[in-house]
Design goal:
- This protein is of the alpha/beta class.
- Helix content is 59%, strand content 7%.
- It has a six-stranded parallel β-sheet with strand order 8-10-11-12-9-13, sandwiched between helices. A five-stranded parallel β-sheet has the order 4-3-5-6-7. Strands 14-16-15 form a three-stranded antiparallel β-sheet.
- Strand 11, helix 11 (293-296) and strand 12 (306-311) form a beta-alpha-beta unit.
- Helix 12 packs across helix 13 (347-356), helix 30 packs antiparallel against helix 31 (706-723) and helix 39 packs antiparallel against helix 40 (897-912).
- It is globular and about 95 Å long.
- The two termini are 51 Å apart.
């Protein structure tokens, strides 16, 4: 490590300082990044992972830190305080003691908004969560009382990525396990083995028994060290075909040519790109579950990156890899893990369970998860567990590969029918799931009271169950696969892969009575697997696993209220996940069935109507959605009054549709009433209240009240970060709302910084093609354009449009919005002919969906007028501009920003068609209106001032024109910068125009 004497701004020498950074292993990326930044400023840094278990107590552990020399910087998070089993009182005592004994030796940065021990105040923490790299470094330096004049300095030594910035490529890594416990020694050995390996040979195999946690360790390593890699790619490696397919999938992610040849050619291209470190030098590949080295050895990449293999096969030791064994838990790890999984258990009970199960992680996870939801004591449970497992019969699963279909199918099924009744019963149960993957995890959760008599013996005897399953595997009627999800999402447990031909033949052989009985059982199994929180994006993979089985199991036709509620949860998931067409199809079918079964006014029918209406609305069927929502709201208000919770929900839903149909003022009245009522009835931090507050921000934004909308969005965001979580889908949505508000207020740099970070998190949490991620990326494109990054804006908008069109279709409301903005970009910076084609398509789409008088139809007609002007069709352009101005005045009044924008354009069209005095008059009115509505420094106000100067010059009012032009240029330079595209255009006396931007 090199250090240098720094100089402050006055030239005085600043000797290097020494710092000790104390961090929980979970937050290692932050500690490493902070250390790197301090070293770049010439200071010496030592990293110390926080492990209070190794000291007699918290006070002693903190005191040891202070004795290390130098200032101690503590990286605070919930994980820092949960590393041991110490109480909040112990923490408060320890913090007060060490800060009193070692004044000015401790400082802290904080990565969470969650409540922390009160004595943390003594550390005078500074918050880093939600910041970009510049601001985070600034706050660290300020807290440590270091100069801040060289933020971002680089010595040329490659450092870690900023922790809030994900790797460039992040491929199907399982979700991080929030209950991951201990394993610091294993992760330490793994890290050392990778970093100390010779160049080109950084390959480590994590070796251990099934269920010992190899996949969990590899997953945690990927997240903990993510900031040190450009590429992290996860490859399920149980069989060679899957392995090769997943490895080949890396080719397009690396930017290699797509569709060029076979899998083999793509894999060779991937391996060569990794070897050369081009385009990415720092990469990590994880091959999960490779028990046959011959499947993988020839596909192992070389180069500057790292490879992790998880396996049960010790033969990897002879294949030029280092072995790191993953042992059973140490007892303190077992106890900590059990108490996180089952919070009701005492330390003694957790120790009792760990002792009985010999610290076996998978067994601890499954048993502690069961105990978490059961009142039974640990002793009684262990007795039951022992009696169920008291068998000497060995159960093994076949590793045979499937036999060819359909040649041997009839023989195989006949053999099963004649010789293996248990296997036949199990197979008949499988066919009431959808063809394809049948999760055994669901079948293991049969409600005991609902098991039919003919299946009771099989279901309740795990030995018979495994033997029957083994026979189906042995004869290739089904095959078993292993999931690469995290443990709490079903990882490590088998799924049955059932061929569609087998499914159809077996189901077709069943009589009606037997089919009904079996389908009833499967419906109960599916309902039992309902995670219960369809709005939680972390649970969406589990809902995605359940939805394909709804129709085959007869869920839509069930009269059981529990099954109906399960179906409603699935529909809500589909809405939140952006699967609108599937939601609409299922909701339409169910609506007809339930109305006939339950009646028009049944509570379940009403609940279904919310999801049905939501799907209609998201797909652009606004009139049908409005009719449905209005009738529901009027009926509930008449029956229950306007402040009943269900009435408020119905009126809020109705108001949401009114936003789509541009009845903004009526929607505002309903939404503000709902928000006020929810706040009084439920409290200001209730999730429902926050949703209502978010809706108020949306309508304020549509009304052009941008500052009020932003203030409301910002308050909602802060509350959601505290009440929900930073990565909750609703919190992320509020973040997008804040970025939009900043952009609409003209605070482009702030909007860009917030949206860049927001897009990364949305993509990580929701996926790149989720509607909310597309919304974030679209807004980023608009922020880039308004900030002056024209090429970046075009690339973003084009990408979002292509993906939205591919995923949702050209007539999808969201697609029309993005197409409109991309067309305005093309008009100014691209192909004006393509801009016209897209603009005409957008106008037709909006007029068809919303009618001629809707502001979106009107505004996009105005945009089309600008395209015609660019093509030289001035008379036609003026006609469209005047049509847009009249229409927007009629729809929203004279003082809405959209009306002012239309007026700005109309005055320009009047100018170029010779109506000079009319242009001046309208420009004066527009400037006055913009100053009153948006303020004197808003970009639209300044555009109106520059436009007025142009119109004044046209009528030879040069003195007044110069006055306005000078004032406008000074304000643009002050607010946007001298080199911003708007400032440069104004300096060149290019008359500004306004683009209408539909809002989501």
């Amino acid at each position: 490590m090199t250090t240098a004497i720094r100089q402050d701004r006055d030239g005085a020498a600043q000797p290097p300082q020494r710092f000790v950074i104390s961090f929980a292993g979970f937050n290692r990326p932050w500690a490493v990044w902070i250390a790197h930044r301090l070293e770049e400023h010439g200071h010496r840094v030592a990293l110390q992972r926080w492990d209070p278990q190794s000291s007699p107590g918290v006070t002693e552990a903190l005191d040891d830190l202070a004795r290390a020399g130098g200032k101690v910087l503590v990286v605070l998070s919930e994980r820092y305080f949960s590393a041991g089993t110490h109480t909040e009182e112990e923490w408060n005592t320890a913090l007060r003691t060490v800060t009193e004994h070692h004044p000015d030796r401790f400082a802290a940065v904080c990565l969470t908004d969650a409540p922390l021990p009160s004595a943390v105040a003594a550390l005078e923490k500074t918050d880093l969560w939600g910041l970009d790299a510049y601001e985070a470094e600034y706050r660290v330096l300020r807290r440590l009382e270091l100069p801040t004049d060289r933020i971002g300095i680089e010595s040329g030594r490659r450092g870690p990525r900023f922790p809030n910035d994900p790797p460039e490529i992040w491929g199907r890594v399982p979700r991080r396990n929030p209950r991951f416990t201990g394993r610091n020694d294993v992760i330490g050995r793994l890290r050392a083995a990778l970093t100390e390996a010779p160049p080109g040979a950084s390959t480590v195999t994590l070796l251990g028994l099934s269920g010992v946690g190899k996949t969990q360790v590899a997953t945690e390593y990927a997240y903990r060290f993510a900031s040190e890699y450009d590429v992290v790619w996860w490859v399920p490696a149980e069989d060679r075909p899957t392995l090769r397919e997943r490895l080949a999938d890396l080719a397009p992610a690396l930017g290699l040519p797509e569709g060029a040849g076979s899998y083999g050619e793509q894999i060779r291209a991937v391996l060569e790109a990794l070897r050369r470190g081009n385009p990415y030098y720092r990469w990590l590949l994880v091959f999960d579950g490779c028990d046959n080295p011959d499947d993988l050895t020839d596909l192992l990449p070389s180069g500057a990156g790292d490879v992790i293999i998880t396996s049960r096969n010790r033969e990897w030791a002879a294949r030029h890899t280092s072995l790191v064994e993953v042992p059973l838990y140490a007892r303190p790890e077992s106890v900590t893990f059990i108490r996180r999984r089952a919070g009701r258990l005492t330390a003694a009970e957790a120790d009792q369970l760990a002792e009985a199960l010999e610290d076996y992680p998978l067994a601890l996870d499954q048993t502690a998860g069961w105990l978490a939801d059961s009142p039974i004591g640990v002793g009684e449970y262990l007795h039951l567990l022992q009696s169920r497992l008291d068998s000497h019969e060995a159960v093994t699963l076949s590793d045979d590969y499937p036999l060819p279909f359909p040649t041997a199918l009839a023989i195989l099924l006949n053999n099963v029918r004649e010789n293996f009744p248990d296997a036949l019963a199990l197979l008949r149960l499988f066919v009431f799931f959808a063809p394809g993957r049948v999760p055994l995890r669901l079948l293991s959760e049969f409600p005991a009271d609902d098991v039919p008599e003919q299946l009771a013996g099989l279901i309740n005897d795990q030995i018979r169950w495994n033997a029957a399953l083994n026979k189906l595997v042995q004869f290739s009627v089904v095959r078993l696969e292993y999931s690469d999800l995290a443990v709490e999402e079903g990882g490590g447990l088998e799924t049955v892969q059932l061929h569609r031909m087998v499914h159809n033949i077996v189901r077709g052989d069943l009589g009606d009575d037997e089919a009904e009985e079996l389908s009833r059982v499967v419906r109960q199994v599916l309902a039992a697997a309902d995670p219960g929180r369809p709005s939680d994006s972390r649970l969406w993979p589990r809902y995605a696993e359940l939805v394909p089985h709804l129709e085959p199991a007869g869920v839509l036709r069930s009269s059981n209220p529990r099954i109906q509620n399960f179906l409603l949860h699935c529909l809500r998931y589909l809405l939140r996940a952006g699967e609108y067409r599937t939601c609409l199809r299922l909701a339409e079918q169910t609506d007809g069935i339930w109305r006939a079964m339950l009646g028009e006014d049944h509570d379940q029918v009403r609940e279904l109507s919310y999801h049905y209406g939501g799907a209609l609305r998201m797909l652009g069927h606004f009139r049908q959605a409005e009719s449905l929502a209005k009738s529901r709201a009027e009926r509930l208000v008449a029956e229950r009054g306007p402040r009943d919770l269900e009435s408020l929900r119905a009126t809020s839903s109705y108001a949401g549709v009114l936003l789509n149909t541009a009845k903004f003022e009526r929607a505002r009245e309903l939404l503000e009433h709902a928000f006020t009522s929810y706040r009084e009835l439920l409290g200001e931090d209730d999730a429902t209240t926050l949703a209502a507050q978010n809706n108020v921000a949306v309508v304020l934004r549509l009304l052009g009240r941008y500052q009020e909308a932003y203030d409301t969005d910002l308050d909602t965001l802060r509350r959601r970060e505290r009440v929900l979580r930073v990565r909750h889908i609703a919190t992320l949505s509020s973040g997008i709302g804040c970025a939009m508000g900043l952009r609409l207020m003209g605070r482009y740099r702030e909007a860009l910084a917030r949206q860049e970070q927001g897009l990364k998190v949305n993509a990580q949490v929701l996926g790149t093609n989720h509607p909310q991620t597309l919304r974030a990326e679209h807004n980023l494109g608009m922020c880039l354009r308004r900030s002056g990054d024209i090429p970046g804006a075009g690339a973003r908008l084009r990408s979002v449009l292509e993906r939205s069109t591919r995923v949702f279709g050209a007539e999808f409301p969201w697609t029309l919005m993005v197409a409109s903005d991309y067309a305005t970009y093309l008009r100014e910076y691209g192909d004006v002919d393509e801009a016209r084609r897209i603009s005409e398509d957008v106008v037709r789409g909006y007029q068809s969906q919303l009618g001629l008088a809707h502001p979106y139809s009107i505004g996009t007609v105005g945009n089309l007028g600008l395209v015609l002007r660019a093509q030289g069709e001035r008379v036609e352009a003026l006609s469209l501009a005047e049509q847009a101005l009249v229409g927007m005045r009629g729809a929203l009044g004279d003082r809405h920003p959209w009306t002012l924008g239309c007026a700005l354009n109309a005055s320009g069209h009047r100018n170029i068609t010779g109506r000079l005095e009319d242009a001046v008059e309208l420009s004066r009115e527009t400037l006055r209106g913009a100053e009153q509505v948006l303020g004197p420094d808003h970009p639209m106000t300044l555009s109106a001032q520059i436009a007025l100067a142009a119109d004044l010059r046209a009528v030879r009012e040069d003195a007044e024109a110069a006055k306005h032009e000078d004032a406008g240029l000074k304000a643009l330079t002050r607010t946007l910068g001298a080199q911003h595209v708007h400032t440069v255009s104004a300096r060149q006396q290019t008359r500004p125009y306004w683009d209408f931007e539909p809002q989501p």
